Amino acid sequence: MKVKYEVADILRRNHHKLEYVVPNRWKLRTLYAIEICRTAALGGHIDQCLNTDCNQMHISYNSCRNRHCPKCQGHKRQQWILARENELINTSYYHMVFTLPSQLHKLTFTNQKIIYSILFKTAWSVVRDFASNPKFIGGKTGMISILHTWGQNLSFHPHLHCIVPGGGINPNKKWKTAKGKDKYLFPVKAISKVFRARFTEQIRLHFNLEQKFYKCLFQKKWVVYCKRPFYGPKQVIEYIGRYTHKVA
Fold first, then answer.
1. How much is the pLDDT for 140?
2. CA dihedral defined by 36, 40, 42, 44, rounded to 10 degrees?
3. CA pair distance 135, 21, nearest whole angstrom
4. Which end of the chain is more exposed for a tag (fewer CB within 10 A), N or C?
5. pLDDT tens digits for range 127-183
């Protein structure tokens, strides 16, 4: 269903006011890109059907391709969803969320590249090792993960959304279904403690901080959430797809 008004419509109506309310030139250029996206200002291109019996042509305006543009990001998000659907297999999937405690927010905000790299690597190492344990799966599994850096109220809230299949490939190269019985893929308390220990260890290796800071991290209960499995590959991808190409 086509919406009545778009962000670009609002920007065009208030174009003459933007330079007075936008604090810097970079943001102003971003808003201007959204305003002229898919208009004559950016030129156009011709798409033609390759079928010789058709040869129909369609003329379209060019996109701004700015990562903040809702039109461009919507298209890229759909492309991402279709690509991930091709990677899914016919099994149940679990939704896991690795969340950093508030004590790490300041360090994370000022060292985002390092911390986010640690977050991805640590989360995967935890999932990989728990999956290899015969108590849970006893095989090699996989994971699709999306970083989310803000919460529902748009506050800084870094956490990692992960989709993990409910099984893996055992040493005999055969599929082995997880023993979670459609409740939890792994024990939440155990995986939370391991995640906290491994992440804190990486913080020690990358930063020279006071000991009381590390003590504070271990006094805090870290949260690794593992929801019930989703049923159906499309539902999995549609859910995690909401967190891709989204700008607050």
1. 96
2. 140
3. 59
4. N
5. 999 999 999 999 999 999 999 888 777 789 999 999 899 999 999 999 999 886 667
CA 111 to chain centre: 19
**Among 242, 233, 231, which Cα is nearest to 86's?**
233
Q: How far apart are CA 152 and CA 135, in angstroms?
A: 36
Q: Is residue 45 classed as helix, strand or coil in its secondary structure?
A: strand
pLDDT one-digit tens code per residue, 6-29: 888 999 999 888 888 887 888 899
CB 40 within 8 A of CB 61: yes
The two structure tokens encoding residue 27: 């943001």
Helix, strand, or coil here: 149?
A: strand
Class of 89-234 per CATH?
Answer: alpha beta
Identify which of 106, 131, 107, 90 has the alpha carbon closest to the alpha carbon of residue 234. 90
pLDDT in tens, 179-234: 866 678 899 999 999 999 999 999 999 999 999 999 999 998 998 988 776 667 67
Enumerate the CATH 3.40.1310.20 domain ranges in the chain, comma separated. Answer: 89-234
Question: Two tokens at 23?
Answer: 């604090």
Q: Is 18 exposed, middle or buried (0-12, 13-18, 19+ CB in 10 A)?
A: middle
Which tokens go with 188? 């939440």
Cα–Cα distance, 157 to 107 (Å, whole number): 13
Q: Which residue's structure tokens are 């391709």?
A: 65
CA distance 66 to 39: 14
